[in-house]
Amino acid sequence: MPLMPEILFDCCVLSNFALSDSLYVIKKLHANSSYVTSLVVAENLRGILAGHNKLANVNTAIKEGWLKEVAIKSEKERSLFETLSLSLGFGEASSIAIAKIRGHVFACDDRTARREAELLGIRLTGTLGILIKAVKKKIIGIKDADVILGNMISNGFYSPVKSVTELF
Length: 168
Prior knowledge:
Helix content is 55%, strand content 10%.
């Protein structure tokens, strides 16, 4: 079975799965190939401190080791991060910079961040793409995907569809 590509998550996509109690979907799809930047971890902490307790599940995933925290290391990453920070938040800018330099897929729902990533030739996915992939790989059924999507929407996710079936 081919290895899943390494994937870097922004705060929004991780939040959608954490707040809907469905981080297990990401774990089953991308165990040991999932990354999050230190700046996204900081954004997540702000969410926990604001009372979104289920976001602590992201920290648990990092402690378990299947979600790995990474930091900007190289001068190329730092330079790209600084440029992107002019128009994006630090979490998204750090994620795009690392994804570009290390060749990772970027999991993001934010339109502006996705456009920047596309311009840099970075492969993209998002919340809905992950749900679709999980259904196609038989990790969850389509009904489960709809329940998860409904939970995400009730927790504030703006989804262009009400049902995953609309995407098949």
